[in-house]
Specification:
single chain; 9 helices; 4-stranded antiparallel β-sheet; alpha+beta; 223 residues
Length: 223
Amino acid sequence: MDIYEALYTTRAMRRVKPDPVPESVQARILDAAIRAPSGGNGQNWRFLLLDDQEKKNLIGPLYRDALDQLYKTVYAPMLAAIDADPDSPESRQMAKVTKSSQWLGDHFEEVPLFLFAFVQRDRTGGSIFPAVWNAQLAARAQGVGSALTSILGGFHDAEVKEILGVPADEKWTQSCCVSFGYPTGRWGVAPRRPAHEVAYRNGWGEPVGFTVDEPLWQPSDEA
């Protein structure tokens, strides 16, 4: 796959089929993940693949509770804004994201594969998240959709670690959980604010010097 196709179309794909992801594909995903750079080349990471149904059945309710808590706290202003002006472009976009997130919560136990990423002594996440993104890009190249979430670590960290058997005395940080599966929807370039609206040059608020009004890669560029 062309690298730009992977970069531009690897977006959150939460709605997936229950079909299992073959171990040969899982191997490619993890092998790509560990090729990422890490601080001091310490590689103080661990990746735990979860496809055991009993353990998914235990974690699913925790995920839904975490999602509910997120809606009542961090996302409360956003949900209020959607209710206040449901027809605005911003509200419609956020409503789509919320609906997609809720789908993952409602169908957590049906998702075929999860990857939990753990790290030691990585306060910023600068070592673990490049590896996680490598995994997601590799999955995209194999036609597998993925979506990253960190709410389990935020609301039910201890319970999840106990279910997964993470050693309590080794101080592993649960960085995130990534869902994997063959998507029910279509790949595409996700809408984003243009680069020139969120980037500066040489000083805060200074123009970056160029504009990018449309994505610089389009599906027609594949040829």
